[in-house]
Design a protein that fits this description.
Blueprint lengths: L9 H9 L25 E11 L10 H18 L3 E11 L5 H18 L2 E9 L5 E11 L14 E5 L4 H9 L8 H12 L7 H4 L6 E4 L4 H12 L2 E5 L7 H9 L3 H7 L6 E5 L4 H11 L3 E8 L9 E4 L17
Parallel strand pairs: 2-3, 7-10
Antiparallel strand pairs: 1-4, 2-4, 5-8, 5-9, 6-8, 7-9
Helix pairs in contact: 2-3, 4-5, 5-8
The structure holds adenosine-5'-diphosphate (ADP) and magnesium ion.
The site of adenosine-5'-diphosphate has 13 residues, from helix 1, strand 2 and strand 3.
Length: 335
């Protein structure tokens, strides 16, 4: 690495802030070697996932560093959860502009420590560099899944029900609050939505329990409709969603009451980090039981069906009277 001017040297930084996060994981060698070793539990394989977040794109420059760290980790844990994996460890690539202070890094590491406690994962290595661009954080996370059982996007069957966990649209509306575009919301609702944007709650307890029940799964990061489209494409199917069944928080309902135009944001906005999955009706009872015991809301929002021949339409969204809705955006895409 090349370190930045107003920070302690590379090894000092790693020893002070990152090596403590490797304690308890022998294969990390205290971050004193070139690389780490990690083996899955017997009968399992490792699921690996990396996701980068960039200042100005995925978070705002004055967001609290501990929350930035936790979001960077959690978006990866969300992917592991949606694949049915139990999180074990992660690596951290940090690209820092020269303006970053040691206090910022200390707070960033504190955020990681907090989430390591919450999710039982360890930091096992990484890289640190300076950049002329914004703060960029790439995390690679590893989790265990029973060999051959990772939940895939492409396993859905026609007739399967489409389910989603939690509530949809909170984070996207939270971002509109941060951008000063939802001034009509009361402070409590606005605060709830901003929190949902800044701190995803990856469904780590539910994900592994969906193995054997879900036919296909992915996490909702790009937006409900965009991610459902990914699942449809991988499964070579179409889907019908009933908009009134999409689970909404009290805060989102309040926002919709003042401006029904927010419904597009709800259906197409990103950053929910809930699990979208499909399952046959035979497992409905088991899913209801799981939802109760884990205290994770699971809502049926539609069904999978064969695509109509010669038609591009993968997803139909029906309104309260069963009429198809037209949306101006199919969801957030980067390019
Ligand atoms: P190399 O010179 O071989 O690229 P480094 O000197 O960058 O390795 O890193 C030394 C050790 O510190 C390695 O174990 C590496 O994984 C770890 N490390 C470096 N940066 C970070 C970081 N941001 N988070 C966690 N571990 C890190
Ligand atoms: Mg080396």
């Amino acid at each position: 690495m090349k370190h930045t001017a107003n920070l302690p040297g590379e090894f000092e930084l790693i020893a002070r802030y990152f090596a403590p996060l490797a304690r308890g994981f022998p294969g990390a060698f205290g971050l004193l070697d070139d690389a780490a070793v990690i083996a899955p539990a017997p009968g399992h394989e490792l699921v690996a996932k990396t996701d980068a977040i960039v200042g100005g794109v995925h978070f705002l420059h004055d967001d609290p560093p501990d929350l930035i760290a936790r979001k960077a980790l959690r978006v990866n844990l969300s992917d592991l959860a949606a694949k049915g994996a139990v999180p074990r460890a992660y690596m951290l690539d940090l690209m820092l502009p020269k303006t970053v202070t040691e206090e910022w890094i200390a707070a960033f590491a504190r955020g990681l420590a907090e989430d390591q406690n919450e999710y039982g994962v360890h930091l096992i290595g990484g890289d640190t560099d300076s950049t002329p661009g914004p703060v960029t954080i790439a995390i690679m996370a590893f989790g265990d899944v029973a060999t051959g059982r990772m939940l895939r996007r492409g396993g859905a069957r026609a007739g399967d029900t489409v389910f989603v966990t939690g509530t949809i649209g909170d984070a996207a509306l939270g971002l509109t609050v941060l951008r000063g575009k939802s001034a009509h919301l009361d402070p409590k609702a606005a605060g709830f939505l901003v929190d949902r944007y800044r701190l995803p709650r990856p469904r780590v307890t539910l994900g592994p329990r969906l193995i054997g029940l879900a036919s296909a799964a992915l996490d909702v990061s790009d937006g409900l409709l965009a991610d459902l489209r990914h699942l449809c494409e991988a499964s070579e199917l179409a889907a019908v969603i009933e908009a009134p069944r999409v689970p909404l928080s009290t805060a989102v309902r309040a926002a919709l009451a003042t401006d029904s135009g927010h419904m597009t944001t709800v259906l197409t906005g990103g950053d929910d980090y809930e699990i979208l999955f499909t399952a046959p009706s035979a497992v409905l009872g088991e899913l209801a039981e799981l939802s109760r015991t884990l205290d994770v809301p699971i809502t049926a929002i539609g069904r999978m069906q064969s695509p109509s021949i010669g038609k591009e339409t993968r997803i139909t969204v029906l309104d309260e009277s069963g009429e198809p809705l037209t949306l101006d955006r199919g969801g957030w895409t980067h390019f």
